[in-house]
């Protein structure tokens, strides 16, 4: 049976619909490109802003931590750092209020994981941070949006999604819910250590003043993010049989000193 052939210039079938579909695809692509909604543009925007390199404060003689220092808060047991959690790549150039937090294995200093130590009165005095002293942990200006580390008592609708403990997030709120203090890891000498300067790299406990619960990294609860598998961070005091905090509550404050990384 002979097969009828056509010249390439001959249009057959639903040719008008095919042409219109191709034009719509190109038009939709151009609109997304102009508005910055292409996935490659969102990824590049995040890399340029939220993942750009930041400098931590240089370590001073004696390793004393000062108000105004830029630090990473590192969980000792997992080596993960406290970071802003962004579930989806966004076209925004800064963190949104409120913003969830998690413990991330991406430890390079960047706007999503660098915090500044601020006093509760909003000023940045040039004095050491001491054990038992109230302070606020705030993200950097610009992409960090100057959000405060926040927590509150758990409710049925407002709690950590997996552990159900009091949630921790970044917020622009200025209240007692954003005030923290550093406690000595050893509960036997905790009272004696109050008023003494905190040193960089020391194992410490981060206590929330309003709930009296400690900042905790729950490594058994993980969430997939564009940056990898992050661990859940909540406010929960976890004690062992000797009434001492377990590894979930042990952190250290890291500066730019190479021997503290």
Describe this structure in words.
The protein has 261 residues and is of the alpha+beta class. Helices cover 14% and strands 25% of the residues. It contains 3 helices and 12 strands. The protein has helices at 15-35, 39-49, 190-193, and strands at residues 70-75, 81-84, 99-104, 115-118, 136-139, 148-151, 168-171, 180-184, 204-208, 215-225, 228-235, 250-254. A 6-stranded antiparallel beta sheet has the order 5-4-1-12-9-8. Strands 2, 3, 6, 7, 10 and 11 form a 6-stranded antiparallel beta sheet that branches. It is elongated. The termini are far apart. The model has no long low-confidence stretch (mean pLDDT 85).
What ranges have pLDDT less than 50 throughout 5 or more consecutive residues?
A: none
Determine the fraction of residues in helical runs and give it as a percent range: 10-25%
Kindly provide the radius of gyration, computed on alpha-carbon positions and rounded to a whole number of angstroms.
Answer: 25 Å
Structural class: alpha+beta
As a percent range, the share of strand residues is 25-35%
Q: Count the DSSP helices.
A: 3
Distance between the termini: 78 Å
Order of helices and strands: HHEEEEEEEEHEEEE
In order across it, which strands form the biggest sheet?
A: 5-4-1-12-9-8
| Overall number of strands | 12
How can the largest sheet be summarized? 6 strands, antiparallel
User: What is the typical, i.e. mean, pLDDT?
Assistant: 85
The backbone outline, from C-alpha atoms, is: elongated
Features of the shown structure:
261 residues, six-stranded antiparallel sheet, 3 helices, 14% helix, 25% strand, elongated
